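Why does residue order matter? Because the sequence determines the fold. Keep that principle in mind as you read this record.
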Amino acid sequence: MTVNHSLQDLLYSVLQLKPSQLPLHEHTPLLGALPELDSMAVVAILTGLETLYDFTVEDDEIDASVFATYGSLQRFVTQKLSSSP
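Structure:
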């Protein structure tokens, strides 16, 4: 499974949305655009990312820009995977 598909699956699961309700592409706005993406959802997504991809997300690595769009979140995951030992 690619990062794109597994990340989409995680987002749909945490946000309890279907692909037809939220088509995810590079420029899909997330934070501030989706009422489902509240602080608890952000924590659930980060925990899910750590579990799914077996990396740790430090507090200083996360700010609103990571969750600005689907593409920015996907780039964050890809960067974490490429820098993980």
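Residues 39-53 form the longest helix (15 residues).
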